């Protein structure tokens, strides 16, 4: 299992409902940002992966558990950790914590497939990614 990657997210007004609480689906957006920034931190830009490697990533499954609400203006830490990896699939364990008090707000298991960008069919991760992911 890989070490966790952390990404800060500030809750904006647009992320909340009328009560000032983060709308449930937005946690998926926060988790997506953390996975994207994790890739970026490893030197992989998704637009270049499509252009140069012919691959893209698609979420195939998302299981989310909501523990406590985040509110307008909270600073959050969103984590992403690989819990399983195959040639064409990565399973992430992710969590959202409030920075102020460290409260665990949400966690999830997100399954992501590597797809051929033209055919939208599963394909192996590029070799450059396999070297990094499988060596972690």
Automatic annotation (TrEMBL):
* Keyword entries, A-Z: Hydrolase
Family per record = Belongs to the 4-hydroxybenzoyl-CoA thioesterase family.
* Annotated Pfam families: 4HBT_2
Give the protein name, as stated in the record: Acyl-CoA thioester hydrolase
Enzyme Commission number(s) of this protein: 3.1.2.-
Q: Which domain of life is it from?
A: Bacteria
Annotated GO MF terms:
hydrolase activity
- Top-tier EC class: hydrolase
Q: Which InterPro entries match?
A: 4-hydroxybenzoyl-CoA_TE (IPR050563), HotDog_dom_sf (IPR029069), Tol-Pal_acyl-CoA_thioesterase (IPR014166), YbgC/YbaW (IPR006684)
- Gene3D superfamilies referenced in this protein's UniProt entry, alphabetically: Hotdog Thioesterase
């Amino acid at each position: 299992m890989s070490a966790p990657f952390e990404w800060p997210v500030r809750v904006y007004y647009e992320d909340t409902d009328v009560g000032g609480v983060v709308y449930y689906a937005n946690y998926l957006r926060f988790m997506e940002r953390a996975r994207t920034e994790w890739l970026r931190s490893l030197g992989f830009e998704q637009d270049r992966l499509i252009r140069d490697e012919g691959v893209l990533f698609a979420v195939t499954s998302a299981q989310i558990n909501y523990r406590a609400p985040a509110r307008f203006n909270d600073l959050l830490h969103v984590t992403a950790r690989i819990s399983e990896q195959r040639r064409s699939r990565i399973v992430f364990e992710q969590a959202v914590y409030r920075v102020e008090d460290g409260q665990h707000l949400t966690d999830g298991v997100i399954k992501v497939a590597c797809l051929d960008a033209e055919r939208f069919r599963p394909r192996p991760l590029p070799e450059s990614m396999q070297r990094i992911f499988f060596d972690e």
